[in-house]
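ugh ok so i messed up the first submission bc i forgot one of the chains. this is the corrected input, ALL of the components this time, i swear. 444 residues overall. if the numbers dont match what u have on ur side tell me asap before i send this to the collaborators (the ones from the other lab, u know who)
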Amino acid sequence: MSAFEARNLACSRVGRRIFAALDFTLPAGGALILRGANGSGKSSLLRVLAGLLAPVGGELHWDGKPVNDDPEAFQDNICYVGHGNAIKPVLTVHENLAFWSKLYPPKSAEGYDDLLDQALETFSLTTLRDVPGRQLSSGQSRRLSLSRLITSPARIWLLDEPSVGLDDVSLKRLEAAIAEHRAGGGMVIAATHTPLDIADADLLLLQDFAPPAIDPELLENSW
Amino acid sequence: MTGAGGIIARDLKLALRQRSDAVMIVLFFVLTAALFPFGVGPEANQLAAIAPGVIWVTALLAVLLSLERLFLADYEDGSLELMALSPVPLELTVLAKVFAHWLTTGLPLIAAAPLIAILFNMPVSALPILALAMLLGTPTLSLIGAIGAALTLGARRGGVLVPLLVLPLYIPTLIFGVSAVDAALLGFPVRPHLLLLAGILLISLVVSPLAGAAALRQANE
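and heres the new structure output, hopefully the right one now
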């Protein structure tokens, strides 16, 4: 059984410790919801998991093996949807999605066009297929960004505020897509403020791993 | 390799749909060069003498002006993160983007250069050497510029910082680019100058993807 594990993970940005001693284990088909106040490190944690940000301490394990042994091979397991939608205003919806799915090739080239259509259908973008990116509303842009998940062969979905700007129907579709992904043994780690209906998901509260506040007196003495 | 090809195709498509960007760079090149006769006077021999230098310096400035669009838009909309996470090595991504940049900037400049050469009364016999020297020199300008563009991502006032970083590194290309054309005009052998330009190109071909990718990783953090 494959599992994704973090052991004693610590992260700092610009010299400021954000979280420390963070552990979690995510089995196949599992889901993890990250909760915490603004600036508590949800996005940073997702960036660490994606491999964009190097942790200052701790390890990630995939299938019982340290990710650091072969970080590039591990990245094939990741599909990251961050704050940026990565949509080019002069490319059409279909061209935008096609570019990313070529860069992250699906397991087999067979049925590739169908896969793209299916991804667009999942987030009801089929009618917008030939609309240039600049004409999309922010919610539509978000849906296009999320549709990359469907074309990706990755096992682990890392979602940073996936539901921002989504209407109720799209939110239901996202929840359904997540449920289907998990039913196939996939894993989901999502940072979100809005309630996202994900069945028996584990909850990770970032404030539990915040470093202890530094004693101001101690700081003064060290000058 | 298909991934890198996809990046080149995408950047070319983007450049084609935002044609005005590339057209503006070429116009800047021609207009800036056309200012010199007003500044130094219309004496034909004098203009012919400064032509190689003017063409190279203005081409260099035009490339500098175009560097911003190399990475900035992709950095701001999150595309660069996704490219860094993709199975395509980031070094290859940098190389692909630089190649697309050269096709849409360097190549049009080479095409426009004869126009300025004729405007400056430069002997037509030197045009092939000018084109050859630019063919070897402008890719170096894109490659070195990519390092500067990548390093200044996320920096405040990055646009001002790029020339400070990049211009000193452009000097060797400028020197041998101009001396190749001068040698052709004076009837000296041009081969050594072209070989030196090719040498600089080969060095930047190795250094630029490595340094550029390292800078992009830093920017993505």
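quick check: The longest strand of chain A covers residues 16-27. that seems consistent at least. The CA atoms of residues 167 and 203 of chain A lie 24 Å apart.
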